[in-house]
Write a structure and sequence with these properties.
Elements (H helix, E strand, L loop, with lengths): L1 E5 L2 E4 L4 E4 L2 E2 L4 H12 L5 E2 H8 L3 E2 L2 H15 L9 E4 L3 E4 L4 E5 L15 H6 L4 H8 L6 H26 L5 H11 L17 H48 L9 H30 L4 H31 L9 H18 L7 E2 L3 H24 L5 H11 L8 H7 L6 H23 L4
Antiparallel strand pairs: 1-2, 1-9, 2-3, 3-4, 5-8, 6-10, 7-8
Helix pairs in contact: 1-3, 5-6, 6-7, 7-8, 8-9, 8-15, 9-10, 9-11, 10-11, 11-12, 12-15
Length: 453
């Protein structure tokens, strides 16, 4: 693995260090990888799609994440986007490393010992008596367009480079301090020199937390919408497969009076239930993943459980009202508790399967994606098993209860119980069918959620 020398910089991919004049210039890992990638392909303009596939290959991020990465690299190199020496923007395409004299050499043991990191804003210190104040005024101002929002983020990054703790001390409780604190908290993950930005125990913690959530949701809104739709489609398709398979098995079971036509009916019911469940759990997971950078597992479990529970309560109320009003059937349908438990199980499996995702919404590929889907299927299956052991019905159990309460219905699942070895639709049958429903739902949900746009 070679190292590269350009201008007064030395870049070592093997040591993962960028050195200038004996001092290390720190970059977060993804930004370091981006700089290496641009230098490796310095003889061509690199398309934005290729950058996302190389640097953010395991997560999905918004276009603004790339713009922020380029801006940070330019500042680290002392580059200017208007008159670039190192990185040029190629309109409607991507970026190119344009410095002409790049020396590629063996990365041997002859390596200068880096000194402690010098200030990343020496120029700002030299040209301003108080470099903090202009930046603090900018981050506390009201941005009226996207350009001003990006300028605010750049100012927040510069404040981190000057010193996070000092920036927070000077910020104090001036007007819009809560928003500025949220912005500093958000940009600390993209700035190698950043220190901690606590919210609890600081002035206006609720307002700051609300502003932080709003910042992250706005930057991830388009991606979240796509993932929410993918989760709903994945859950719906899983429900269609499960319903159709259940209908065919029911029709083929010994002693069953159910016709083969029952398969498409159950497929439609399963698809609707799976789509609604996927929409609820997927929405909770997407929002939690977009807004949480720390305590990720707790956030994902809580978000998925909350989304599944809320959608489940809505479906439970609509289902009971519809059955009572249209056909006069009173059935204890499931919904809220089931959605809460299975949603939380999906969040736990998803968090464990994507624990290495950082800086975006997880999007594993190939075997890793399949492995994530299997793990989520297992946790959802266990969650569904726990629900059925308490006597709560899932989709199959609800269909059986409705069939028993309706005269002449052929959708009773008693033949499936006999097929398993019980005289009726007993606890073992409920457990087996419920576990299968949960596992199939989790598998489809995870595949839909991790689909790359």
């Amino acid at each position: 693995m070679p190292r590269y020398r350009f201008s007064d910089f030395t870049l070592s991919p093997r040591r993962r260090m960028l050195i200038r004049g004996g001092h290390e210039r720190p970059l977060i890992p993804r930004y370091f990888d981006l700089l290496v990638f641009l230098i490796e392909r310095r003889h061509e303009a690199v398309h934005r799609r290729d950058i996302f596939d190389r640097v953010w290959n395991d997560v999905v991020v918004s276009d603004s994440a790339l713009s922020q990465a380029i801006r940070t690299i330019r500042r680290t190199l002392g580059d200017d986007s208007r008159e670039p020496r190192f990185i040029r923007t190629v309109s409607r395409h991507g970026y190119r490393f344009v410095f002409p004299d790049v020396v590629e050499e063996a990365d041997d043991d002859a390596w200068p010992s880096p000194a402690l990191t010098s200030s990343a804003v020496d120029a700002a210190v030299e040209t301003a008596v108080d470099p903090f104040e202009p930046l603090l005024q900018r981050v506390t101002a009201v941005a009226t367009n996207a350009s001003e929002e990006e300028e605010q983020r750049e100012s927040a990054e510069l404040l981190h480079a000057l010193g996070t703790s000092e920036a927070l001390r000077r910020l104090g409780t001036r007007p819009r301090h809560a928003f500025a604190r949220a912005l500093l908290r958000d940009t600390r993950w993209e700035t190698a020199e950043a220190g901690p930005v606590p919210l609890l125990g600081q002035p206006s913690p609720i307002n700051a937390a609300r502003a932080l959530v709003n910042l992250r949701l706005r930057r991830a809104a388009r991606i979240m919408a796509a993932r929410w739709a993918g989760a709903s489609i994945g859950g719906g398709l899983a429900g269609v497969v499960g319903g159709a398979a259940g209908g065919l098995i029911l029709a083929a079971a010994p002693g069953s009076a159910a016709p083969v036509d029952m398969a498409p009916v159950l497929a439609v019911i399963g698809g609707c239930c799976g789509a609604v469940g996927g929409a609820g759990v997927g929405a909770g997971l997407s929002v939690a993943e977009a807004t949480a950078r720390s305590q990720r597992t707790i956030s994902l479990v809580s978000g998925a459980a909350l989304g599944g529970g809320l959608f489940g309560v809505a479906v439970q109320w609509v289902g009971r009202w519809s059955l009572a009003a249209l056909v006069g059937v009173q059935v204890d349908t499931g919904g809220g508790l089931e959605g809460l438990v299975i949603g939380g199980a999906a969040g736990l499996g998803y968090a464990a399967a994507t624990s290495r995702a950082d800086g975006g919404l997880a999007a594993p590929r190939g075997r890793r994606r399949l492995g994530a889907a299997v793990l989520v299927a297992c946790t959802c299956g266990l969650g569904a098993l726990g629900v059925t052991l308490t006597g709560r019905p899932l989709v199959g159990g609800t269909i059986h209860a409705i069939a028993q309460a309706s005269q002449g219905s052929q959708a009773a699942l008693t033949p499936l119980g006999r097929l398993i070895g019980e005289p009726d639709f007993g606890p073992i049958t409920r457990a087996v069918i419920g576990t299968g429903e949960g596992a199939l739902f989790g598998f489809g949900l995870a595949l839909g959620l991790t689909r790359r746009p």
